Amino acid sequence: MTEKNYNPEQKERKAMKKQEKVKKAVKSESPKNEKPAAVETKTEEKKEDKKEKPEIKKPAEKPKKTKAVVNGVDIPISTKHSMAICRFIKRKKISQAISDLEQVAKIRKPIPMKGEIPHRKGKMMSGRFPQKAAKQFIILLKSLSSNAIYFGIEEPIITEAFANIGARPFGRKGIRRKRTHIRIVAENRTKEKTCITNAKTSSASVTELKEKK
User: Fold this and answer.
1) How far, in Å, CA of 145 to CA of 153, rounded?
2) 72: CATH
């Protein structure tokens, strides 16, 4: 650059004009960019609120029932032995029934049975020690006690217990296998007491009517 063309004042003026143009451009663009920024902040806040507040699931309430039931299907035991055990178990507490059947499995306590069967010591006439059936009944009674605890049944007593013949599949040499269906029901002790009292009152009312006639 030659000395004739060099003018520092002119250069400073040009630089000042460029700075003023840049400032004006920034001022003109700033109000337009303010609105979408605010909108973006609002959307971000909403997303954060949704993330911060997860849906709280309510705990499932326990179902309220008055009786507990357990079913055994196609159990490989004798139907005759299981029917005798059902009669032996009825109107007992679940814990008492389990302890009695454990003694039966150890050949310490016989189960009364009908037919041409050898006599045993005690109040019964004839009886046997069906160990295999007793072990299967212990498994069912333990599951029944857990069901009663889950449903909140206090002092459950076995009110129903019955056995039916199941499927009889063929084994080796045409021998048919033994299978039995079992159903055991336990209810609250207070309910059983109310049923007994209602039965007594109904029988008493019937006798009074007969006497009046």
Assistant:
1) 9
2) 3.90.470.10
* DSSP SS3 for 105: helix
Any idea what DSSP says for residue 135? Answer: H
Predicted confidence at residue 198, as pLDDT, reads 57
147 contacts 69 by C-beta, under 8 angstroms: yes
Structure confidence at residue 32 (pLDDT): 47
Task: Provide the number of structural domains found in the chain.
Answer: 1
162 inside domain: yes
Give me the sign of the Cα torsion angle 141, 73, 61, 53. Answer: positive
CA–CA separation, 176 and 81 (whole Å)? 17
The reply to whether the predicted model has a pTM over 0.70 is no
Q: Is residue 72 part of a domain?
A: yes
Res 85: pLDDT: 96
What is the reported pLDDT for 53?
52
Q: Residue 140 sits in which domain range?
A: 67-189
How far from the centroid of its chain's Cα atoms is residue 62's Cα?
8
Report if residue 206 sits inside a domain.
no
Instruction: Provide the token pair at 141.
Output: 């009674």
Q: Which residues of the chain have pLDDT under 70?
A: 1-7, 26-63, 190-213
* 5 within some domain: no
